[in-house]
Amino acid sequence: MNVSKKLNVKVGSEENKSYDIIVESNFDKLSGLLSELFLSCNKLMLVFDSNTDRFFKGRLVQKLKNTGKELHTFTFPAGEDNKNISTVQSLYEELINKNFERKDVILAVGGGVVGDLAGFAAATYLRGIRFAGIPTTLLAMSDSSVGGKTGVDFMAYKNMVGAFHQPSLVYMNTDSLTSLPEREYLSGVAEVIKYGYIWDKEFLSYLKENTDKIISKDEEALEYIIYNSCRIKKEVVENDPLEKGLRAILNFGHTIGHAVEKLMNFDLLHGECVALGMISACRMAVERGLVSESELEDMKKILTEYKLFNKISLSAVDFSIEDVLKATKSDKKMQGGKIKFILTKEVGKAEIYTDITDEEMIVGIKEIFEG
């Protein structure tokens, strides 16, 4: 079947250890692709949150009737607070009640929360069934739907329980982004910008030169940034599918970002926190002499233009810089009691450091606070 844009992600040496990422501007080809891919499947479980249920459930159920599969749906309340074991248990119950077997398939329809949770359920139900991602946010399209990381939060620790479980297909409909509020859409741009800093200098240049087009969701610009974000993540993931080395660079901005996200009780969006984490990391790189002060200012400029950088006022929050430091120590990126920290050595090149001191982190954290 001809599609607009396609990437194939190889995640193992065996011929069948790969999956396609499809970028389209509608859902027209989804039914045919699912029918071709899941010939032995009898049932599809479409997983939504309360937001994607409202915008996409009716359309998708109607489209997927053409597959000839038995269709079921599961919806849970939107929000990071519901990405937990309790919601997964409810999904397990639904799968059991509907007699889902190992040959059947889960479809994750939504942003990162839906993809992570549905993917984790697929990884663990009957020791693993297949799933496909239908991401509907820029954050999910550009990052979380690709690579096979699944998981849920546990006791407010983000993604602390999870598994690597690769999807069988990722189908992206860029038109899905038209219903996305600007703030949530721009949150996804943070992950897109990240790729420029860690991997592709030319891609970052495009993001700087096409700010207005990207903010206004120009169709051509959207296709370009989504396709190239997936291309970069594919290149990294294929080299390190289980994050034993190189893949950790994708966590640029996430260590301090996750700590802030947790302490802010998720009032800041994930991408907004990643943006703050990138600035913190860049300040640390400046202090180490890896990058220049002007490069830090340039990062602040591009993140500000995309409405992603505002310093946090210490007087407006109930935690301190030391609390942020402490929260980073509970991050799952710890190795041998040391944090695996990602710093850029230059634009387009990142490396993993395990010798970052508390003093260095405090300097980095201070860069994103005021007062």
From TrEMBL:
<feature type="domain" description="3-dehydroquinate synthase N-terminal">
    <location>
        <begin position="74"/>
        <end position="185"/>
    </location>
</feature>
<dbReference type="InterPro" id="IPR016037">
    <property type="entry name" value="DHQ_synth_AroB"/>
</dbReference>
<feature type="binding site">
    <location>
        <begin position="112"/>
        <end position="116"/>
    </location>
    <ligand>
        <name>NAD(+)</name>
    </ligand>
</feature>
<keyword id="KW-0520">NAD</keyword>
<dbReference type="GO" id="GO:0000166">
    <property type="term" value="F:nucleotide binding"/>
</dbReference>
<keyword id="KW-0170">Cobalt</keyword>
<keyword id="KW-0862">Zinc</keyword>
<dbReference type="InterPro" id="IPR056179">
    <property type="entry name" value="DHQS_C"/>
</dbReference>
<dbReference type="GO" id="GO:0003856">
    <property type="term" value="F:3-dehydroquinate synthase activity"/>
</dbReference>
<dbReference type="Pfam" id="PF24621">
    <property type="entry name" value="DHQS_C"/>
</dbReference>
<comment type="similarity">
    <text>Belongs to the sugar phosphate cyclases superfamily. Dehydroquinate synthase family.</text>
</comment>
<dbReference type="InterPro" id="IPR050071">
    <property type="entry name" value="Dehydroquinate_synthase"/>
</dbReference>
<dbReference type="InterPro" id="IPR030960">
    <property type="entry name" value="DHQS/DOIS_N"/>
</dbReference>
<feature type="binding site">
    <location>
        <position position="270"/>
    </location>
    <ligand>
        <name>Zn(2+)</name>
    </ligand>
</feature>
<keyword id="KW-0057">Aromatic amino acid biosynthesis</keyword>
<keyword id="KW-0479">Metal-binding</keyword>
<keyword id="KW-0547">Nucleotide-binding</keyword>
<keyword id="KW-0456">Lyase</keyword>
<feature type="binding site">
    <location>
        <position position="254"/>
    </location>
    <ligand>
        <name>Zn(2+)</name>
    </ligand>
</feature>
<feature type="domain" description="3-dehydroquinate synthase C-terminal">
    <location>
        <begin position="188"/>
        <end position="333"/>
    </location>
</feature>
<keyword id="KW-0028">Amino-acid biosynthesis</keyword>
<dbReference type="GO" id="GO:0008652">
    <property type="term" value="P:amino acid biosynthetic process"/>
</dbReference>
<dbReference type="InterPro" id="IPR030963">
    <property type="entry name" value="DHQ_synth_fam"/>
</dbReference>
<dbReference type="GO" id="GO:0009073">
    <property type="term" value="P:aromatic amino acid family biosynthetic process"/>
</dbReference>
<feature type="binding site">
    <location>
        <begin position="136"/>
        <end position="137"/>
    </location>
    <ligand>
        <name>NAD(+)</name>
    </ligand>
</feature>
<feature type="binding site">
    <location>
        <position position="158"/>
    </location>
    <ligand>
        <name>NAD(+)</name>
    </ligand>
</feature>
<feature type="binding site">
    <location>
        <position position="191"/>
    </location>
    <ligand>
        <name>Zn(2+)</name>
    </ligand>
</feature>
<dbReference type="GO" id="GO:0009423">
    <property type="term" value="P:chorismate biosynthetic process"/>
</dbReference>
<comment type="function">
    <text>Catalyzes the conversion of 3-deoxy-D-arabino-heptulosonate 7-phosphate (DAHP) to dehydroquinate (DHQ).</text>
</comment>
<comment type="pathway">
    <text>Metabolic intermediate biosynthesis; chorismate biosynthesis; chorismate from D-erythrose 4-phosphate and phosphoenolpyruvate: step 2/7.</text>
</comment>
<dbReference type="Pfam" id="PF01761">
    <property type="entry name" value="DHQ_synthase"/>
</dbReference>
<dbReference type="GO" id="GO:0005737">
    <property type="term" value="C:cytoplasm"/>
</dbReference>
<keyword id="KW-0963">Cytoplasm</keyword>
<dbReference type="GO" id="GO:0046872">
    <property type="term" value="F:metal ion binding"/>
</dbReference>
<protein>
    <recommendedName>
        <fullName>3-dehydroquinate synthase</fullName>
        <ecNumber>4.2.3.4</ecNumber>
    </recommendedName>
</protein>
<feature type="binding site">
    <location>
        <position position="149"/>
    </location>
    <ligand>
        <name>NAD(+)</name>
    </ligand>
</feature>
